[in-house]
Amino acid sequence: MNSTPIGNEYLGIGGISNNALYVYCYLSQYLSHEKQVRTTYPLIAEDVCVCKKQADNRKRIKDALLELEEKELITTEITFNDHLRIVFIKEWEDKFTLIPHAYLNVATPDELKIIAHILRWTHVRNSIALDEWMAVLDLSYATVQKRLKEAAEKNLIGIRHGKYYEAANIVTGK
């Protein structure tokens, strides 16, 4: 599978954080047929960069895993020699968005949340107001503008005149 399904209720306001979404998508790439991943915190931290300082990065990854566990998306178990067994327990039959794994190599956690939101709404409408971005991303006005501008510079999204944003050059081919 080249994409991760995630329920729309987890992408909206009050859903999961940007870091949790990023870690969830990253780990889902490595699912076994038993819907589980066996790994360690240092191995995840080598590939998942949610912040620059390595000690902070590991802490944020642990926090993201705890959040995913609290939201009942995964269960974690520490096994022999501090290895992690992460079991994905949530499956969606409808009302989910597929997030292509190709974005994990080019997008930050904030940008992945932007892309996920665009992919979620692209079938309904082609633009999203800045106020909606602020609510969904849980970021300030200035930070949202900065993140959207960075995503546009990477050709992950397109910006129309005014305060509206749309999907552009997305990996899915649109």
Can you walk me through this structure?
- The structure is a single chain.
- With 174 residues, the chain is α+β, with helices and mostly antiparallel strands.
- 42% of the residues lie in helices and 19% in strands.
- It has seven helices and eight strands.
- A three-stranded antiparallel sheet has the order 2-4-3. A three-stranded antiparallel sheet has the order 6-8-7. A two-stranded antiparallel sheet has the order 1-5.
- A hairpin with a 5-residue loop joins strand 3 and strand 4.
- Helix 2 crosses helix 4, helix 2 crosses helix 5 and helix 3 packs across helix 4.
- The two termini are 20 Å apart.
- The C terminus is likely disordered.
The percent range for strand residues is 15-25%
Radius of gyration: 16 Å
- What proportion of the residues is helical, as a percent range? 40-55%
Biggest sheet, spatial arrangement of strands: 2-4-3
Mean of all residue-level pLDDT scores:
84
What's the gist of this structure?
The chain has 174 residues and is α+β, with helices and mostly antiparallel strands.
What is this structure's SSE topology?
Layout: E1 3-7, H1 8-11, H2 18-28, E2 36-39, H3 41-47, H4 54-70, E3 74-78, E4 84-88, E5 96-100, H5 109-121, E6 128-129, H6 130-137, H7 141-153, E7 157-159, E8 164-167
Antiparallel strand pairs: 1-5, 2-4, 3-4, 6-8, 7-8
